[in-house]
Amino acid sequence: MENLGDSVTTLQYNAGILSLGIGQALWFWLSVLLIATELRLAFGMFLQINPYFEPFATLWTFTDPVLNFGRLLYPKVMGWDTAPVANMALLATSLLGWISSFLDLTK
């Protein structure tokens, strides 16, 4: 019989693989969300783009939580809404920080 104290059990191995898969999926979808938000802000500069027709309506719906979350919580600085910038900075920091360290992508 194998000594379980010296090796990793099947349950521990499967839990590790599952958590790694969840971390990679989270990293991927947050990266897609950040890129889509930057794309929406770039498209917003062009006045000829109507965000109420496809494919822009889906982009606007997908990125609304990033740009509108916490509007009442963040202060306005001289009439400028800081919520989109703060939310994108928080999203980028989480991508580069704890998710990358969790996945060990820097090595």
Explain this structure.
The chain is mainly alpha-helical and 107 residues long. It has a domain at 31-103. Helix content is 64%, strand content 4%. It has helices at residues 10-43, 56-68, 83-103, and strands at 76-77, 80-81. The protein has a two-stranded antiparallel sheet. Strand 1 and strand 2 form a beta hairpin. Helix 1 packs across helix 2 and helix 1 (10-43) runs antiparallel to helix 3. The radius of gyration is 20 Å and the shape is elongated. It starts with 9 loop residues before the first helix and ends with a helix.
Strand order of the largest sheet: 1-2
- What does the radius of gyration come to? 20 Å
Order of helices and strands: HHEEH
Uncertain regions spanning at least 5 consecutive residues? none
The average pLDDT is 80
What's the total number of strands? 2
Give helix % range: 55-70%
Q: Helix/strand/pairing class, anyone?
A: mainly alpha
Counted by DSSP, the helix tally is: 3
Distance between the termini: 37 Å
Shape: elongated
